[in-house]
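Final report, section 2: Outcomes. Of the targets proposed, SusC/RagA family TonB-linked outer membrane protein is the one most frequently requested by collaborating groups, and we therefore present its record in full.
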Amino acid sequence: MKYNITNLLYSFSLVLIFFTSFQLSAQSSEQVLRGQVIDAGTKEPILGATVIEQDAENRTITGVVTDFDGNFAIRIKSTNNKLVISTIGYTTQVLEVGNRRNFDIQLVEKVEGLDEIVITGSKGSDDGLLNIAERNLTTSVVTVKASDIENTQAASIDEALQGRVAGVDITANSGDPGAGMQIRIRGTSSINGSSDPLIVVDGMPYETSIPEDFNFGTADQQGYAALLNVAPSDIESITILKDAAATAMWGARAAAGVLIINTKRGSVGSPKIGYTFTGTYMQMPNTIPMLNGDQYSQLIPEAYMNRTGTPLPTSLPEFQYDPQEVYYYKNYGNNTDWVDAITQTGLTGEHNISLQGGGERARYYSSVGYYNSRGVTKGTAYERINGRLNLDYVVSDRIRFKADISYTHSDTDRNYVNGTSNGADRIRSVAYVKMPNMSIYEYDDVGDITPNYFSPAQNIQGQYSGTYNPVAMAEFATNNQIGERIVPHFNLKVDLVPDRLISTFDIQYDFNSTKAKSFLPQNATGRPFTETVVNRAADSDVDVTSITTKTNFIYTPQLGEKHSFQSILSLQSNDVRVETHEALTSNTASSLLTDPSVPSRTQNSELVLNTYNGQSRNVGALINAQYGYDDRYLFNVGLRADGNSKFGPDNRYALFPSVSTRWRVSAEKFMESLDWVDDFSVRASLGQSGRAPRSDYRYFNIYSNYPTEYLGLNGIYPANIQLNNLRWETLIGKNLGFNIQLFDKRVMMDIDIYKNRTKDLLFRNIDITTVSGYSNLSDQNVGTLDNQGWEIGLNTTPFKNDKWTVDFNFNISRNQNVIREISEFYPNESGNIDRNGEYKRFLQVDNPFGSFYGYRFKGVYPDLESTKALDANGNVIVGPNGQEVYMRFNYPNIDYTFQPGDAIYEDINKDGNIDSRDIVYLGNSNPKFSGGFGPSFSYNRQFKLQLFFTYRLDYDIINGTDMITTNMYGFDNQSKAVLSRWRNPGDVTDMPRAVYRGGYNWLGSSRYVEDASFLRFRSATFSYNFGKKFLKSIKLDDLNLFFTADNIMTFTKYRGQDPEVGRGAPGVFGISIDNSRTPPTRRFTLGLRTRF
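The predicted structure is given below as tokens.
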């Protein structure tokens, strides 16, 4: 594999070098202009400033860059055109040519640094749709500057955006390298459907998901973390579309919002080579303190005594501690910190080299990057190789052509997880509870340590998969995923009627291949070779191929100075084909044979052979127009028609209208006296977006084989009901917004108030009467879900002079998620509350999606007297025979009588029995408030300090780690919190007694529900730009050194490792549970960025 990848990279690099070194320069002979560009303050020449010729329509005709002395010479086509002079850190100048032939140009320093390039996605020129200035947008759109994220050490764009945009809530799935992020724009908008935003790269949608028909394990969370495929160093701008009127323009896949990414492109001038390097040291945050071997050895006999009334059997070798039994004494006489044993120092290195330039007709941008990260948990790593080539070619004054191609190779190593469901990082949760008196390495019979890991087939903690040696698992078991993605994109733009009618045509081919391989050898589990869990080999392949086309006709008539009008007709199509294969077997002949195709036992329960082949198509047509009058009143109307093959013929097509408006109040005459108001606008929008089911072929009858035979033949039967009447899930969004700019744009504020209602929610597996011959419907429209809230974004420059600039940014959002309607036929509850360790989950009207329910924990019974049941008046309940009644659990089904030292649960109905009637709402995992803020300080355009904080407030998570490390239920190790446990009658504590395999002290209750509110010091970055004199002496255009510290400190009352936990398992009943995943790491990054 390494040889093939090397060859591929070599070939790809040759292609890049060939294309990017090829420039076409048209000859033109009208006039040659000459001049010099200098700094207005220092009078020093400016190297690398761009001088371009623009016509009356602001189209670039030609361009050059200044040399080391700031000099330039440019051949222009017409003296009626103008010169535009710009460079990073200076205010752009526009000069009329006229009769002038020589120019002495002085550029004024602009302290802000990189100019913000506003590409508004669905309304930006690079996307081929309406080209509307940001100040004239009628919808809720936010653009993030490239300079805001360029110094972050982030593997993906979503990680870099975390906390920076109001209304966009981003949480990490895990702290392991290659793990994706969970993105929610204005809350969770669907229950069974995807709430992930649509990703658009350079104007074309990016395929990000696979159908639910094929369970590919953690594909959605990690393997298909689409933003890992776009290198942050290639990004020019990022735009988020939030309200329904904006997202409606992108069709059915955009109901949950749109994240638009525009990559860097070529520029007029001589070739410029850029190089960026970052090196990162990663450190695990403080872990939960666990019992050592001595403390653990005192806990276990106590728990056993409390359950059985007898001492722990002396026959158990794990607790003999007899020096005469050398083997057991050495292997079970230790103080092992298992969490520390699976933890390592994380290191990340990233290199990116780019080539950018162009002539009058051809421009190019190319880059090659390499990213390698070793995680803080042993056995985890992520490697990425990416390449990009963006070409722009002006065929003539009326025809322009673009060709983009990107390639990504990724290689992800994760810890082995038994099964294929999304869940805990199992190896870390095992490490937390692994018995600490056990040795990592095995001692032999004479007491000498061996190089072999100590992995007994079974001990008092059990056997695989319940427990194992986590260090051996991290070392020997493999779980690898390799992705290859190539995306060519071509665009043709033709001016059918110059300055009036433009047509564009885009076609994109996206091939994404992901191969996952895992292997569980015998030495990772210690189980006998004859068992089916030994030498288990799994292989999964997913190939997703999509072809996307987009044809636009844009009409822009000239209606006079006070009137502006643009309209568009857009025709779009998307075809997706998914092919998957899965094979799993076990008992391969050797631990060296790791592929499921090798000889193995085929007659065992571990054998799995699955394939899937699916295809879907969606088409769309958009009509949109915007009219503006006198720079004050703007109106936008649109109508989107979508068709999707996942629906039956009756509802395959649907219409989704949108309307929005903007009133620039500051342009009214009554505002003229308020010269400190630069802009004050009011926006309002109303729109609809549709969503299709995630699975294919729901409107077909699918037939299956009967398992039994008749006359040697299997019969067939229809396995599902044909769903002809399945309707589109529809989001109806309303938005009211305010844009305010004050004091020469020193204060800029955006305020949005919204309400989104999702109706006809697509639910899966609806229970129906068996009289129909079926037990359920695969999909049905039943339910309504609301998301409503507000957002505020504030950007200020409180201080600025010739040397210093101080900026401060702040954003906050409030989203309320409420279920308004749910079908009585839908299975709206999950979880067995009669068992320890489980919570009840309901889909309950007027409560948020993601809510959890359970008992209220009230402490610990200190003595027998306190266990008596009390009625509503506080009197002891008396039985039919006059006897006093003691508190019970789930009478008469279980009928456990609570004992001194047991957990107290609130008896809601005061009947002396803790059962389902005492279950209450405990919380939900949706934060009430979230956002980020931070100041930045810059001095003399060279020194800059940026601080950034993120926060999530008033949301609840279940501390699953606390649950497994304080239950004192089995032979698992526990945290040091149990040192305060109840031991004798009269003890007053909130930590119940230790009871081996007995009691109900860790039921799903408020005991483990914690307020996870936090304020995180997310990053601090110090950067230094070298001065022009020094750069000139070493012949560089730019040189920047920076140091960044990430995840520096977290302020929270949460008792777990990290409070940032998104929704865990996917599906309707997924809730936020801290299952001992790898937390976000503390990172220290040193970086260098240069250009020459």
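The first helix runs from residue 2 to 20.
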